Amino acid sequence: MRVVVVGNGPAASCAVEAFRSIDKESELIVLSAEDCPTYAPNCLENVIRGDIHNSALFYKGGESFYEKYNVDFRKNTPVYRVNNAKKTVITEKGEEISYDKCLLAAGAYAFIPPVDGVELEGITPAKTLREAERIRDLIRSGKVRNAVVVGAGPIGIEDAETLHHLGVNVSVVEIFDRVLPRMLDSQMGSIYGKVFEKETGVKLYLEHQVVSFQGEKKVEAVEIKPRGSDKRLFLKADLVILSAGVRPRTQLVEGTDIRIHEDPETGRQLGGIIVNEYQQTSDPDVFAAGDIASGIDVWGNHRWIALFPAAQQAGYIAGFNMAGVKVKNPGLVDYNAVKTRSVTAGSGGVFGNEEEALLIEKDNRIVKIFFKEGKIIGYQFVGIPSYNSVSVKNTLLSEKTRRWCEKVLLTSGMGLEASGVLFHSFLKQRKTVTPIKKRMIEDLLLRALANPAEDFPLYLKTL
Fold first, then answer.
1. Are 426 and 456 in contact (CB under 8 A)?
2. Structure confidence at residue 334 (pLDDT)
């Protein structure tokens, strides 16, 4: 059997591991549009800062990963289309590669807003490793004093803080009324944004839209205006990072009978390629996982969740099923976190249609939990720096050590352990929250609720 995997991100690499744990002999081809081994997509701000080792960035082992799992790894091989009628994958160079089973794991691409001047030098997404490296090199050149980040989602916020720590004056432009608009509601987003702006000095332009990018060959300024107003502002910019969202690479199946996630009434595209609980598309020999797919969430609905943990989970499920072991995906859940030093945030599940919301504040942690029908459907978390200080009476600490400790304490933020506990204990199991458990949540006794005996395995075999 020949299996062709289109893409080389978290979903693809996890599928390879799962497939090879069952099938040691079949031919396995991985086609990558990029020129490097699979890497951690949530660490690109570390690449810009230059503070990550290759062993952490290439978290699956680099080139040795493909040798270990006997993979025919083909770099610089972007795919143009899939012809499932002929069971072939067509590369952009025109090569046709046949398959018995195919996994579409090509992810998503950065959305480029259709704004005048967007083609100027110095304007770039930060979606791929090479883009992050180019931004890093530009910063190191000393030619960037002012930067503008378009979009205040997790990537945009992390990149903004990174540029600030590298000595750049940073502004963030966001069309919504808050930062992290798809991750936090208005209340929690406002809390996070105010602390972030105060701690970093990054200027937030909320409810503003980009009108144009100004410059000759290279960007020099960004023209913006408040939403609903004609007043114009000009922000100096030697660098612009576009972080206005991503789109699934569904163009790979254009012209085929493979279904895409669309509104049945309007035909408007809602997400990626539709898959069932086995990660199969409408063609049973074509699977999809990761940011390219709309999978089934824990509530039984098709949703497009373009996040690292969901991609890994779906990749493993696809790999087992392609190898002939029938494994159901127990359901996807949004789980996202922002790795900013000044203030942290995490979220999981959904919000907006809750029947009740519970806000808890304790020890500089703010947790908001959303309930429907007596069950938790989502949560949000913000951790604010506590400004602990090092004792000046401690004679064991030198002045240099004390200054270093204080710097670490002031920039470490709060951990997201509480968020992870809620995520695993409630969201994935859809537990009813009893009055006693609700009281424990209010007291933030979250570790006491994380009973491994009550958890269930990720892979539910139905042989």
1. no
2. 85
Question: What are 174's two structure tokens?
Answer: 């966001």
Beta strands at 27-31 and 72-74: parallel, antiparallel or unpaired:
parallel
DSSP β-bridge partners for residue 204: 172
What is the CATH class of 2-108+248-328? Answer: alpha beta
Q: Judge whether residue 425 has pLDDT over 80.
A: no
The pLDDT of residue 463 is 36
382 by DSSP, 3-state: which? strand
Nearest Cα residue to 421 out of 460, 386, 369, 463: 369
Query: What CATH architecture is 123-244?
Result: 3-Layer(bba) Sandwich (3.50)
Amino acid 412: pLDDT: 40
Residue 237: CB partners within 8 Å, gap ≥ 6? 122, 146, 147, 148, 213, 219, 220, 221, 222
**Is residue 241 a contact partner of residue 171, using CB atoms and an 8 Å limit?**
no
Residue 96: helix, strand or coil by DSSP?
A: strand
Which residue reads 């699956």 in tokens? 60
Cβ neighbour number for residue 22 with a 10 Å cutoff: 15
Give CATH 3.50.50.60 domain extents, the chain. 2-108+248-328, 123-244
Q: Which phi and psi angles does 265 have, rounded to 5°?
A: -90, -45
Q: 343-455 adopts what CATH topology? A: Enolase-like; domain 1 (3.30.390)
Q: pLDDT tens for residues 141-168? A: 999 999 999 999 999 999 999 999 999 9
